Amino acid sequence: MTATKRQLHLNVGINTTGYLANAWRYRTGDRHDINNPDYYRRLTELAHKGLFDAVFFSDHPALMTDPNGRPFHTIDPLILCTVLAAQVPDIGFVATMSSTYNSPYNLARRTQSADIISGGRMIINIVSSFNPNVAANFGAEPLPPRSERYAKASEFLDVAKRLWSSWDPAREGDIPENRFWDAASAQAIDHSGDYFTVQGPLNVPVGPQGHPVIAQAGTSEGGIDLAARHGEIIYCNILSRPAGQAFGRKVRDRAIALGRDPSAIRIVPGLVAILGKNREEALRKHELFSGTGSEDGLIARFIKDNGINPDGFDPDAVLDPERFIPDPNRIQAVGMGLGLSDLLSHEQLTARQAVRRSEGHHRLVLGTPEEVADAIIDLWADGTVDGYTLQPPRAPDDIEEFVTNVIPILQDRGVYRTAYEEKTMRERYGLPYPFNRFG
Amino acid sequence: MTATKRQLHLNVGINTTGYLANAWRYRTGDRHDINNPDYYRRLTELAHKGLFDAVFFSDHPALMTDPNGRPFHTIDPLILCTVLAAQVPDIGFVATMSSTYNSPYNLARRTQSADIISGGRMIINIVSSFNPNVAANFGAEPLPPRSERYAKASEFLDVAKRLWSSWDPAREGDIPENRFWDAASAQAIDHSGDYFTVQGPLNVPVGPQGHPVIAQAGTSEGGIDLAARHGEIIYCNILSRPAGQAFGRKVRDRAIALGRDPSAIRIVPGLVAILGKNREEALRKHELFSGTGSEDGLIARFIKDNGINPDGFDPDAVLDPERFIPDPNRIQAVGMGLGLSDLLSHEQLTARQAVRRSEGHHRLVLGTPEEVADAIIDLWADGTVDGYTLQPPRAPDDIEEFVTNVIPILQDRGVYRTAYEEKTMRERYGLPYPFNRFG
After folding, report:
1. Is A59 annotated as a binding residue?
2. Which domain holds residue B63?
3. B266 touches B386 (CB < 8 A)
4. Structural domain count of chain B
5. Looking at chain B, which residue has its C-alpha nearest residue A17?
6. Exposed (0-12), middle (13-18) or buried (19+): which is B314, by Cβ within 10 Å?
7. Residues B236, B237, B239, CA angle at the centre, nearest 5°?
8. Omega before B396 within 30 of 0, i.e. cis
9. What are the residues facing A266 on neighbouring strands?
10. First and final CA of chain A: distance in angstroms?
């Protein structure tokens, strides 16, 4: 134990009705919630009561029109985070945005503005868009190939970092009486690269965090490279200890190879927790919230999702991990699919067992509050993860249950805060203040 | 007088230290204000006390680095308006944004989000960027020619309007028990035009105003065309009654020619008001706030700004209006320059007189609170204008003086509200709810 005690980090996703498309049938509230700013305020207040590090908004600039589900990404995340920051103190905000379909200048300006307004509580989750429905909202061109999207995302963040630090705060002190400012404190960046040409300077000075904390969500090879270069908080899907340790090593080794301090990276994967008075109750809730209705239903979905021939499939036979390696050329988030193949390559599991290990691609933990707390602490205690991003099946219900029943246990075990102490997200996550070219 | 009494509309600009670059020397506050969200909250509260229709943020996505002035456009206007809407009730927000350097999908989503969050208090001022320093922040390409920028802006708004209304609110009522929503309530727009290809639908439903009110700021030919097509609130520079009447006729005639109801347009030009115990005091303040120091200084600046040969120039000779028609090909806001030539073509003025008629391109009114109130009512009473957008030389000082001294006179005269009554900006401005393709 060092002087500063290592702490469990917990974020919570609060998109619309919760993480699972079908769980809305069992939630408190009505369909107007998803478009109601007061609803998001209530969710954020609930998260604040639970002393979460931050609330997390995933995003996707296109409407997903599953008639059986619900709209998932509606109100613009940064706009929503900005208003929530005015309404709820202390807690941080993770806003997802696309590096494929934004310009670095506008995005750097907006996010620095939101960071200033929130007093340094902004984390931005930069994603490289992978969906043709998104591309179709931004022109006639198809999606660029994956490698190009990641190269563009990396240059995007290089430019954003230079813009965020294009004002020299040190010059603020020494200004003649007859001048309002030292105009030379803001310097052009004159960037000219493969994807972007940006003169600068930004018209917003350096913010309370130097720049917003950068989260990164990819776990494909390109995603790991981007995480190693730029990610400060890594959101990913880690389904087991060996898979998590391998992932963490890979990201940190790559960071070292790029000359970056690997201690400036926090890994907070997604987590779906379903609580019950006992494990059996949690299993039944899982079957309901997933929309499959039963264990057989979960297995049938597993067969379908993985393109398995159902004829003669034995749900109690050990699965072959080779069978589950995702095709890197398919048009979707490759990283998400890797979770299952990584799990199976480290543990011998049957389909019946595997369906209880993940939900919506993320680690699933089922059981009593004590069992869930144990499972969370388990991978945190040895540093496999730095914490989790809770993805509640239902909002507000599963956030409320977690805050009421699990948080006190985590506090009793001494791994989780009992009050907010830090002001900025960099302080809360123990991340360094970023390099500024002015020194 | 009809059943609904016609009302004077007043907005107030609250960029950084106020409208005039040099007036900061005479303002209350320090240089940290411009980057401090609490400062903008205080200005908005002051505007709320004065019952202004809305606060106005001009914008420019580039840093203007005049060492003698101050940064003018810093924090992103929409981010700032979003947080201010959470902090200050009733008042509206005009956020300026570029149609040249934004994508319609992102902008439509962000602004609809902000409109929902503010309960229908958003006005968006869509401008076609004219500055090469802006272009240099968004790529290596030079600015497109003016005609192309306006054609692009018009198509931009066509697309945005279709996105804003891509959900059918009527389908909200009739949803089966086992469904969260009617996914068919959101329809693709499948736009494919000269500048944009956008599939849609938007992932945000229709907002409280149908869509945010659209303000338009250009007064060049292209700007008038855009205003006639799309503008609901026109921000412009009108320096005299005949010029204002000619402008209003032109915009409304063009709207009619385009098949649009001209009664759905409000004209609220900029206005710089400088108050004094008497006119002499106001004149001296004008000389100080303009940074010219004296009447001779104002005349010298006039000579310089208009490229006049100072040798033998007689400041008391009547000016030739032909001399002041701006070159439509120069790289700046042509509309602004037209104000002066329009003024001179309708009134015989000397340079000594002309310098007291506008400041920062806008109508200047100087004198006691009664004189200023009279001048405001004068052009409003016969419908030349629907109101004004006050551009206070100094913030907060000139807003405070106006609220304390001029607002009560306008209220006494029965032309200005004594309390907020309407919720949305459409209601406040008496603008129609926009057309929705679902009827």
Report:
1. yes
2. 9-170+188-275+364-429
3. yes
4. 1
5. B180
6. exposed
7. 145
8. yes
9. A233
10. 33
Helix H segments across A347-423? Answer: 351-354, 369-381, 397-405, 407-412
Q: Do A105 and B137 touch (CB under 8 A)?
A: yes
To which residue do tokens 């406040």 refer? Answer: B428
**Binary contact (A37, B116; C-beta < 8 A):** yes
Residues B341, B345, B347, CA angle at the centre, nearest 5°?
A: 115
Which residues of B belong to the annotated binding site?
A: 59, 96, 150, 220
| DSSP string for A149-181 | HHHHHHHHHHHHHHHHT-B-GGGGG---TT-S-
Q: Is residue A283 part of a domain?
A: no
> What CA–CA distance (Å, rounded) separates B111 from A416?
38
Which residue, among A137, A168, A206, would best test binding to B if mutated, counting the most B CBs under 10 Å from its CB? A137
As a whole number of angstroms, the distance between CA A330 and CA B191 comes to 27
Token pair for A303: 């067969």
Q: Is A67 on the interface with B (CB under 8 A)?
A: yes
For residue A52, tell me if it sits in a domain. yes
The answer to whether the CB of A264 falls within 8 A of the CB of A227 is: no
Determine the Cα–Cα distance for residues B292 and B328; give it in Å rounded to an integer. Answer: 28
Contact between residue A135 and residue A142 where contact means Cβ atoms under 8 Å apart: yes
Please tell me the distance in Å from A127's CA to the nearest CA on chain B.
Answer: 15
Residues β-bridged to residue B318: B350
Q: What is the CATH number of the domain that holds B15?
A: 3.20.20.30
Residues A165, A186: Cα–Cα separation, whole Å: 9
Q: How far is CA A96 from CA A211, B1, B233, in A?
A: 15, 53, 33
Give how far Cα A435 sits from Cα of A93, A115, A166, A191, A431, Å. 22, 17, 12, 18, 12
Cβ burial of B400 (10 Å; 0-12, 13-18, 19+) is: middle
Residue A314 lies in a domain: no
A354 vs A240: CA distance, rounded Å: 11
- Output the tens digit of pLDDT for each of chain B's 439 residues: 344 689 999 999 999 999 999 999 999 999 999 999 999 999 999 999 999 999 999 999 999 878 888 999 999 999 999 999 999 999 999 999 999 899 999 999 999 999 999 999 999 999 987 788 999 999 988 888 888 888 999 999 999 999 999 998 877 777 888 899 998 899 999 999 999 999 999 999 999 999 999 999 877 888 899 999 999 999 999 999 999 999 999 999 999 999 999 999 999 999 999 999 999 999 999 999 999 999 999 999 999 988 899 999 999 999 998 888 876 655 444 455 678 888 898 899 999 999 999 999 999 999 999 999 999 999 999 999 999 999 999 999 999 999 999 999 999 999 999 999 999 999 999 999 997 777 6
ipTM of this predicted complex?
0.95
Q: Tell me, what DSSP letter sits at residue A432?
A: P
Compute and round to an integer the Cα radius of gyration of chain B.
Answer: 22
With H, G, I as helix, E, B as strand and everything else as coil, classify residue A368. Answer: coil
Helix, strand or coil, per DSSP, at residue A138: coil
Residue A191 lies in a domain: yes
From chain B residues 137-166, the ones with a CB under 8 A of any chain A CB are: 137-140
Residues in chain A, how many?
439
Q: What are phi and psi of A94, to 5 degrees?
A: -110, 115
Angle at alpha carbon of residue B198, lines to B196 and B203, rounded to 5°: 140
